[in-house]
Specification:
The protein has eight helices and eleven strands. It is of the alpha+beta class. The chain has two domains: 8-94, Winged helix-like DNA-binding domain superfamily/Winged helix DNA-binding domain (Arc Repressor Mutant, subunit A); 99-283, Chorismate lyase-like (Chorismate lyase). Helix 2 packs across helix 3.
Length: 289
């Protein structure tokens, strides 16, 4: 762990004077932005690595010649941006780098993760629920099925590298996937490998839509995050080689934990703002499946 060290006077920032027309709030905003940039500069100049401790709030206030309020505002912004982590009673530390993902890559979730300096992260899967229900009109349209046709709804939690989590939902029509191996999924087995081997369904291509959203209380609980923090919600449709849809999927990522890369182009225009408004499945009572 790199020490904080001395030489803070070298990083002291000059006090910036502003015309009175901007008011006190603009000056405070400017000062917290200075602290934000200062912390990033300290991380770069000292070569700090994930887990290394940063100067305390008092030290940063002294270095930047600003109030503690400005420092705390800057640290709040840095934490929301995923640059730092704060541990009660221990201090402020450089955050782990974000996980890089290319959701447009076909196949299992692990195939969408990109290599970093340490290689591919490990992925563990926990089954949350399996149910049968009736799709919303938008899901039925995307899948090309009648709204009265039952579908599987499968929720799983993926744990990446031991700490970061993704919520994943798959909606599969029963006419294409008549049965699901509950035990396999409960043991962390691959859903998409199962449907490929059992029903010869592979995603030849997908159409996806990305949006930044706030999680529901249920999503925040499973992602172990504050409800007000942002998530990236990916919703998509998978098509087989014949151009038939067989899966509507949804993935929820903590916005500050992942970086996304996309490439290629879609062949369909199914998903748009209105088509994302009702992405639900009404559960059936005692469906007998």
């Amino acid at each position: 762990m790199n020490p904080v060290g001395s030489g803070r006077e070298d990083l002291r920032m000059p006090t910036t004077k502003r015309a009175d027309t901007t008011g006190a709030s603009a000056e405070r905003k400017l000062r917290y932005q200075h602290v934000y940039d200062l912390v990033l500069g300290i991380m770069a100049e000292r070569g700090l690595q994930p887990g290394d401790r940063l100067p305390s709030t008092t030290e940063l206030a002294e270095i930047a010649n600003v109030s503690g309020i400005s420092v705390r505002r800057a640290l709040d912004e840095l934490e929301r941006a995923g640059k730092i982590t704060r541990r009660q009673g221990l201090g402020t530390f450089v955050a782990e780098p974000r996980i890089a993902s290319d959701p447009t890559r076909p196949g299992e979730l692990l195939h969408t993760l990109l290599d970093n300096e340490l290689g591919l992260p490990t992925v563990r899967t926990a089954l949350i629920s399996i149910g049968v229900g009736l799709p919303s009109m938008t899901i039925a349209t995307a899948l090309g099925v009648d709204p009265g046709q039952p579908v599987w709804e499968i929720w799983r939690k993926r744990v990446i590298g031991g700490t970061d989590k993704i919520l994943e939902r798959a909606v599969l029509p029963l006419d294409r996937v008549p049965a699901i191996d509950h035990d396999l999924l409960a043991d962390g087995g691959s859903l998409y490998r199962f449907i490929e081997e059992r029903y010869q369904l592979t995603d030849e291509y997908t159409e996806q839509a990305f949006e930044v959203d706030t999680p529901s209380s249920w999503e925040a609980e499973h992602l172990e995050m504050p409800e007000g923090d942002p998530i990236v919600r990916v919703r998509g449709v998978s098509f087989d080689a014949d151009g038939r849809a067989f899966d509507c999927f949804e993935q929820c990522y903590r916005a500050t934990k992942f970086t996304f890369y996309t490439a290629g182009q879609t062949r369909h225009r199914i998903l748009g703002p209105t088509e994302l408004s009702n992405w639900s499945v009404a559960p059936l009572t005692n469906p007998g499946y």
